């Protein structure tokens, strides 16, 4: 009896020893795994931080612009035009319009650069000799248009002097912000020596000051006047495309997922469809661009470079993502809930819409937002349907020519005025990221609200 | 534990006092099943079940795991339709009407034959919404006041109203397990079914909650035909008037509960009741 007890005791001691030995091994591997996991998280966070710091460091300076405060004199000697026509009694509307148009044309034909130059001249310090070309290089080229527009709007300004802010040129802004090395020899500088001296004195006297760059948000792209190039056109283009994606891809995607998951009979056909949807999700996005060019532009004759085509292409690209994610969410609903609904005598449709969908709605929403965010940043397919064209207007409808935020980034990245457009590119990236964060914010807000209600 | 035992014993007494088990035999037959077979793909789960289920009495199905008792229960309101690859043969009639008739709408059938599941499965909605759902989809309430009345009376019949009357708008999933199961019973009652099927309704509950549900079943018997699947022979003995013993997909023996437990005819039934199989 005692012998058996002691052997049992012995073997249990032995077992404990074995368990302890295996424990050290297990604890070790657990520690290693945790360490690796933590390292992975830190690494990922590091890359994200690197991205944000780099983009922020480069892009935030682009959100300031150099404003040039000018006293513009509408000198009759420089602006040699007659006063605008007034509709005389008995003159027909058509005749008056013709006369007015003639007057406007004569105003447009004037060399307004002379007015710009004259007002810049007043700011040149004594003792500096500067050619008119060098002097005009300080103000952005569209300054003359702004001055002309003021005059057209109010011809009574003739002979008067007004205070006006215009943008300093991109090169001047580079010089002021220090985007160009001041110690470089004249031959490598973008501005002539006298122009640089004038700019420095203007900054010292307060004739040039820095302010928030509204131009980047309220202007369209520009090549002749790079300092005034903005994102509005691209932003509106992106907005139209996202609207199209949300309006088309979300209902179609969710409806197909519901049908395939809940109603479709399991057959070879549905299996085939499922495999194809999964494959579509893995098709490179540029292929969707080709498809869009062939189907929507060549065959359906939709306009080239238009957000409608971009939106359709991105819809096609987003559909598989939404379908797969929605099916996954539906599959995750517990059978108990389905049985409860069916057991109550709910029809299949009622089961899906009253019980299954409300439960899965948050995950469907998250998947949708991820899909839309992906589409928001997509560039490659848009290049193939002509959305990389230079468009200097805001699209009024989705059928107008436009570009998109990521494409605008791509275009600016390739601009030859490197030291001015590199910060602008980073600024555009910041705007794109902000749009994306807003989109995700809306999703998180909706999600938390819906979850509270459920 | 003593208290529970006392309560359970009391329930048993109340069963005995309200109804002579023999009475159940004289009640009209509500459900008739003839030669019911079920195949899951190639596997046969039920081999020709024939049974009569009397009106306004509790019939319990007992038997070891996998014996087909739940499968048969699920045939009665066609829940097996929802399982991929399940094929049901034979006939089941409710008041002489074939429930597998292709003309019959399964939605209507399930409104007449309610079901309570093994695990409490209230909808992730408010207590009120849980009970109101059935009447709403079946169009049973003409007005909001009507609906309120149905909800309150159903909760009362399920013995839950007093516990939840101040929090009807809170989620049903926030209740305790036993309360959730009574909510599911209230939900089933709200549609006004004729038959209530219960698939091991107490297997996920503690003894106190079980005793409460058993008492409730006993009260409901006065108005509803109840079929209950149970793992516990004691429960079958306590709540049912008739008992059917299933084994390996066959109906071995069926009769008045007292007879089955005290004087089983079949050897297998005897073995099961004595605890030799199961």
Plain-language structure description:
The complex is a heterodimer of chains A (454) and B (278). Chain A has 17 helices and three strands. By secondary structure, chain A is mainly α. Chain A has a three-stranded antiparallel beta sheet. Chain A is extended. The mean pLDDT of chain A is 89. With 278 residues, chain B is an alpha/beta fold. Chain B has one domain (2-123, 176-273): Rossmann fold (3-Layer(aba) Sandwich), CATH 3.40.50.300. Helices cover 41% and strands 24% of the residues of chain B. In chain B, helix 5 (127-138) crosses helix 6 (144-157), helix 5 (127-138) packs parallel to helix 8 and helix 8 packs parallel to helix 9. Chain A binds chain B through residues 266, 336-347, 350, 354-355, 358-359, 454, and chain B through 77, 79, 82, 84, 107-111, 114-115, 117, 119, 121-125, 133-134, 137-138, 184, 187-188, 191.
What is the N-to-C succession of helices and strands of chain A? HEHHHHEHHEHHHHHHHHHH
Largest sheet of chain A: 3 strands, antiparallel
Question: What's the overall average pLDDT of chain B, rounded?
Answer: 86
- The CATH superfamily of the largest domain in chain A is MetI-like
């Amino acid at each position: 009896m005692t012998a058996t007890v002691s052997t049992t005791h012995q073997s249990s001691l032995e077992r404990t020893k074995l368990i302890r030995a295996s424990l050290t091994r297990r604890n070790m591997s657990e520690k290693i795994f945790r360490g690796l996991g933590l390292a992975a998280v830190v690494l990922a966070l590091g890359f994200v931080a690197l991205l944000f710091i780099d983009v922020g460091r480069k892009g935030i300076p682009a959100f300031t612009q150099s404003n040039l405060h000018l006293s513009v004199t509408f000198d009759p000697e420089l602006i040699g035009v007659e006063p605008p026509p007034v509709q005389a009694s008995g003159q027909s509307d058509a005749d008056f319009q013709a006369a007015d148009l003639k007057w406007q044309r004569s105003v447009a034909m004037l060399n307004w650069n002379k007015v710009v130059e004259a007002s810049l001249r007043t700011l040149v310090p004594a003792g500096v000799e500067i050619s008119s070309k060098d002097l005009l290089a300080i103000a952005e080229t569209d300054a003359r248009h702004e001055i002309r527009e003021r005059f057209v709007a109010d011809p009574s300004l003739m002979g008067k002097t007004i205070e006006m802010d215009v943008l300093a040129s991109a090169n001047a802004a580079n010089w002021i912000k220090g985007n160009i090395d001041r110690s470089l020899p004249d031959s490598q500088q973008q501005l002539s020596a006298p122009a640089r001296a004038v700019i420095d004195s203007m900054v010292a006297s307060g004739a040039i000051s820095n302010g928030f760059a509204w131009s980047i948000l309220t202007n369209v792209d520009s090549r002749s006047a790079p300092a005034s190039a903005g994102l509005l056109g691209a932003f509106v283009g992106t907005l139209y495309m996202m609207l199209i994606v949300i309006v088309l891809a979300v209902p179609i995607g969710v409806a197909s997922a519901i049908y395939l998951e809940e109603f479709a009979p399991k057959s070879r056909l549905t299996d085939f469809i499922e495999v194809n949807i999964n494959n579509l999700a893995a098709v490179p996005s540029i292929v969707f661009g080709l498809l869009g060019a062939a189907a929507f532009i060549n065959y359906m004759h939709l306009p080239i470079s238009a957000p409608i085509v971009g939106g359709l292409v991105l819809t096609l690209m987003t559909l598989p993502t939404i379908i797969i994610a929605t099916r996954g969410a539906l599959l995750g609903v517990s059978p108990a809930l389905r049985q409860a609904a069916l057991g109550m005598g709910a029809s299949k449709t009622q089961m899906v819409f009253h019980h299954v969908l409300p439960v899965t709605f948050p995950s469907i929403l998250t998947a949708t937002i991820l899909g839309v965010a992906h589409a928001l940043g997509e560039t490659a397919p848009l290049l193939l349907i002509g959305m990389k064209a230079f468009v200097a207007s805001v699209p009024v409808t989705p059928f107008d020519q436009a570009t998109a935020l990521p494409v605008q980034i791509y275009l600016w990245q390739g601009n030859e005025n490197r030291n001015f457009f590199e910060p602008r590119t980073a600024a555009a990236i910041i705007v794109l990221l902000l749009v994306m964060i807003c989109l995700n914010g809306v999703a998180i807000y909706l999600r938390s609200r819906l979850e509270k209600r459920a | 534990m003593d208290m529970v035992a006392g309560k359970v014993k009391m329930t048993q007494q109340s069963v005995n006092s309200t109804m002579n088990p023999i009475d159940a035999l004289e009640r009209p037959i509500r459900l008739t099943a003839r030669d019911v077979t079920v195949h899951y793909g190639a596997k046969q789960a039920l081999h020709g079940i024939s049974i009569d289920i009397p009106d306004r009495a509790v019939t319990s199905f007992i038997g070891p795991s996998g014996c087909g008792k739940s499968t048969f229960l699920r045939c009665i309101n066609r829940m097996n339709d929802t399982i991929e690859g399940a094929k049901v043969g034979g006939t089941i009639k409710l008041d002489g009407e074939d429930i597998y008739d292709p003309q019959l709408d399964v939605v209507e059938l399930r409104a007449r034959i309610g079901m309570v599941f093994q695990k409490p499965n209230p909808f992730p909605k408010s207590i009120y919404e849980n009970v109101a759902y059935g009447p709403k989809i079946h169009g049973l309430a003409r007005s909001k006041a009507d609906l309120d009345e149905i909800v309150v009376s159903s909760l009362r019949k399920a013995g839950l109203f007093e516990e939840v009357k101040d929090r009807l708008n809170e989620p049903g999933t926030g209740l305790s397990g036993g309360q959730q199961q009574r909510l599911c019973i209230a939900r089933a009652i709200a549609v006004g079914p004729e038959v209530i099927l219960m698939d091991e309704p107490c297997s996920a509950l503690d003894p106190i909650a079980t005793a409460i549900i058993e008492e409730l079943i006993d009260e409901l018997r006065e108005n509803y035909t109840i079929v209950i699947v149970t793992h516990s022979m004691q429960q079958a003995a306590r709540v049912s008037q008739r008992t059917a013993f299933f084994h390996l997909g066959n109906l071995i023996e069926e009769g008045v509960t007292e007879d089955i437990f005290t004087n089983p005819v079949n050897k297998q039934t005897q073995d099961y009741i004595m605890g030799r199989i199961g």
